[in-house]
């Protein structure tokens, strides 16, 4: 059974998904998770919305947890207090992810990149950073750089907004489990969906 996971490395909810998948793979070792690149900020999309800060709350308003804070707590995931690049596009790294899949180390490379971005604040869309992270895992470094330069995997990568919306993807991560699309869901919901999908599979 394969579960596709729509993601972008700059999406905080996708950092949570790293831990969710680790847990689910222990529970369902025969299930394969295949990360699929969905660029939240492709080159064609302007930064205007992403760079506009939200209005400040009233000074006398008590602080309430956000949806993201609830998700972190529900999943038991730590949010690393690290300065990360602001407004980073991911057009290079999504091609590197696909090259890694063709080299047979896709999931391992994705985990390495997420760790570098969230725990170390590395600008993982820079080619030199990608190459450094690939060392010891991907043998054909020159081929990796060529794939990025050529945008070789453009047909595998989905871009926001219109293209992603046309596929019914509005939030990341989205898990494709059976005939369901589950976006930003707690692990318990994903677990239940996997069990239901497996029960529907022919023996």
The H-level CATH homologous superfamily, spelled out, is: Glutaredoxin
Shape: globular
Q: How many E strands?
A: 5
- Overall mean pLDDT stands at 94
CATH T-level fold name: Glutaredoxin
Report the radius of gyration as a whole number of Å: 18 Å
SSE order: EHEHHHHHHEHEEH
> Taking strands numbered 1, 2, ... along the chain, how are they ordered across the largest sheet?
3-2-1-4-5
Structure notes:
This protein has 203 residues and is of the alpha/beta class. The chain has one domain (2-200): Glutaredoxin (3-Layer(aba) Sandwich), CATH 3.40.30.10. The chain is built from 9 helices and 5 strands, in the order E-H-E-H-H-H-H-H-H-E-H-E-E-H. It has helices at residues 12-27, 48-51, 67-75, 91-102, 106-120, 127-134, 141-150, 162-166, 187-200; strands at 2-7, 32-39, 158-159, 174-177, 180-183. The chain has a 5-stranded mixed sheet with strand order 3-2-1-4-5. Helix 1 (12-27) packs parallel to helix 3 (67-75) and helix 4 runs antiparallel to helix 5 (106-120). The mean pLDDT is 94.
């Amino acid at each position: 059974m394969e579960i596709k996971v729509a993601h972008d490395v700059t999406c905080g909810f996708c950092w949570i998904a790293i831990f969710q998948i680790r847990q689910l793979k222990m529970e369902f070792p025969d299930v394969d998770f295949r990360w699929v690149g969905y660029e939240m900020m492709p080159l064609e999309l302007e930064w205007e919305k992403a760079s506009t800060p939200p209005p400040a709350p009233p000074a006398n308003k008590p602080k309430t947890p956000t949806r993201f804070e609830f998700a972190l707590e529900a999943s038991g995931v730590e949010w690393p207090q690290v300065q990360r690049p602001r407004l980073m596009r991911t057009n290079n790294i999504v091609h590197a992810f696909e090259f890694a899949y063709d080299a047979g180390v896709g999931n391992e490379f994705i985990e390495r990149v997420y760790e570098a971005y969230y725990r170390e604040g590395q600008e993982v869309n820079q080619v030199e950073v990608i190459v450094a992270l690939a060392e010891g895992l991907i043998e054909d470094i020159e081929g990796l750089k060529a794939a990025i330069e050529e945008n070789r995997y453009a047909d595998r990568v989905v871009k926001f907004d219109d293209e992603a919306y046309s596929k019914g993807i509005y939030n990341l991560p989205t898990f494709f489990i059976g005939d369901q699309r589950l976006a930003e869901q707690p692990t318990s919901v994903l677990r239940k969906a996997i069990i239901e999908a497996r029960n529907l599979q022919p023996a």
